[in-house]
């Protein structure tokens, strides 16, 4: 079936000498993997490698056979050409890290328009704003709304956050954050992309990042720690 849709590149893996296997989160069909033959060829008719950088926003036309095999692009173009993400070291590091996180987190082979629209809007915001120190933290927390394990805020006055059930508790059980960690987590829940970016110190961001990675690990089977995590920590140290 010939499909025209927007797509977000989650990963690309070199196959043999000149080809790529590209995993995308599409607006029309959720997760899809594509085979790009001779991606590294210099011919003008071939897709540019730049199209398959982490979290690039594409408009594609593709043949979807929906048989569990690799699909094939017919046409590709940029849906949004980033102005700063690819040249700003902090933003590009954030994007590489988040692409790994999403690659290991999104498993839906069906459409999720709300998640797609959220990610697309967030990435465009990242590209067009300068103060982005907490962007990765906010995006990871907000994404849990669409993955089904966003924290239950109904008892937010309690001093401890229980990680397994995703609720606030008056008692510090085995799987609870301590009081300081819970305090930071509450501040993050209240944060928006355009909030004051200086609300956290560097060490507090590291604490929150560990909390979010642990939270994802608890709630997603087979979740893997991103290889780019150490680079991200270095950039924000």
TL;DR?
This protein is of the alpha+beta class. The chain has helices at residues 89-105, 113-128, 135-147, 179-189, 202-219, 229-235, and strands at 2-15, 19-26, 30-36, 57-63, 72-78, 160-162, 167-169.
Q: How does this model look, in words?
A:
It contains six helices and seven strands; from the N terminus they run E-E-E-E-E-H-H-H-E-E-H-H-H. It is an alpha+beta fold and 237 residues long.
Mean pLDDT: 91
- Helical fraction equals 25-40%
Unreliable sequence segments: none
DSSP helix count? 6
Task: Provide the spatial order of strands within the biggest beta sheet.
Answer: 3-2-1-4-5
User: Mind describing the biggest β-sheet?
Assistant: 5 strands, antiparallel
Write down the overall geometry: globular
Indicate the radius of gyration in whole angstroms: 19 Å
Instruction: Give the DSSP E fraction (strand runs of 2 or more residues).
Output: 15-25%
N-C termini distance = 48 Å
Question: Could you state the oligomeric state of the chains shown?
Answer: single chain
Q: How many β-strand runs?
A: 7
Question: What structural category do the secondary elements indicate?
Answer: alpha+beta
Write down the secondary-structure element order.
Answer: EEEEEHHHEEHHH
């Amino acid at each position: 079936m010939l499909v025209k849709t927007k797509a977000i590149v989650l990963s690309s893996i070199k196959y043999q000498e000149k080809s790529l296997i590209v995993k995308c989160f599409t607006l029309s069909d959720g997760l899809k993997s594509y085979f790009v033959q001779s991606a590294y060829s210099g011919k003008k008719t071939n897709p540019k490698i730049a199209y398959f950088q982490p979290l690039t926003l594409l408009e594609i036309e593709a043949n979807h056979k929906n048989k569990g095999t690799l699909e094939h692009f017919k046409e590709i173009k940029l849906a949004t050409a980033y102005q700063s993400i690819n040249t700003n070291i902090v933003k590009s590091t954030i994007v590489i890290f988040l692409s790994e996180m999403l690659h290991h987190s999104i498993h839906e082979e069906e459409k999720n328009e709300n998640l797609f629209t959220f990610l697309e809007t967030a990435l465009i915001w990242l590209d067009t704003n300068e103060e982005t120190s907490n962007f990765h933290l906010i995006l990871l927390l907000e994404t849990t709304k669409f993955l089904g394990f966003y924290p239950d805020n109904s008892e937010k006055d309690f001093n401890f956050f229980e990680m397994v059930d995703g609720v606030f508790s008056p008692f510090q059980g085995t799987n609870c954050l301590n009081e300081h960690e819970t305090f930071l987590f509450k501040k993050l829940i209240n944060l928006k992309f355009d909030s004051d970016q200086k609300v956290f110190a560097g060490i507090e961001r590291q604490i929150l990042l560990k909390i979010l990675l642990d939270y994802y690990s608890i709630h997603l089977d087979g979740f893997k720690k991103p290889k780019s995590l150490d680079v991200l920590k270095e950039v924000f140290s």
